[in-house]
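I hope you will forgive my troubling you with a question about protein structure. Could you please explain, in whatever detail you think fit, how the structure tokens follow from the sequence? Thank you for your consideration; the sequence and its tokens are set out here.
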Amino acid sequence: MDTDAILLELAGIDKRFGGVHALDSVSFDVQAGEVHAVVGENGAGKSTLMKILAGSCRPDAGVIRMSGKVVSFNTPRDSYSAGINTMYQEFYKFPALTVVGNIFAGREVSTKGLLLDERTMRKRSLEVFDRMGVEIDLDTAVKNLSVAEQQLIEIAKALVYEGRLVIMDEPNSSLTERETRSLFAIIRRLKEHGIAVLYVSHRLEEVFQISDRITVLRDGKYIGTWNTAAVTNMGAMFQSASAFSSLIPPCF
């Protein structure tokens, strides 16, 4: 593995909630420009790990590095500042605001006179959607958009904020098959721009379609990381992350 390509590195991440050991010394890395899937059954620790990376939950132990530099995410803003944007199943949105208003919510661009610089925000929004290969009405209120279109706004935020890593937590749980194909096309575009995607899912079929590597968690523990290309043809044989992780040897 090219260590220079490592964007995110987790080392010994540990988290307890009372008597529940949600994460037990989890360690793995994510490379720049890759789609890295994290899979596991309910209770595997996926959501806890994503919350830690999003800055909404602090680990009890362990180290997080971005491009080799140790970072600490005490708040979501710390995570954003490090170049991480997290897409939850329930989108963080303002229904009455426009597409542009949602993209820049909390990070509005102002002129020297402290007035909102609408022109600059629209320009940057158009540039981002162009990179994504998407056409969308910037003046539409988000409440009038489909789930798939709302998801596009979450991705656009990552690009506008010069994000280096996008975390997608069960991103297609509410999407149709056609919308899922569109989402995968956008993910591939993100890769082309060197942006890494941490793709959290329990659906192995879609994981094999879109990911470069797969990390499996079970009961809060790190089981292993596999190169997807080496196991794609075997994917249909496995019905759960537990079976998957127990039958395929890790790629070192």
Observations:
- The longest strand covers residues 6-17.
- The chain is about 35% helix and 25% strand.
- Residues 234-243, 247-252 have pLDDT under 50 and may be disordered.
- Strands lie at 6-17, 20-31, 35-39, 61-66, 69-71, 84-87, 165-169, 196-200, 213-218, 221-227.
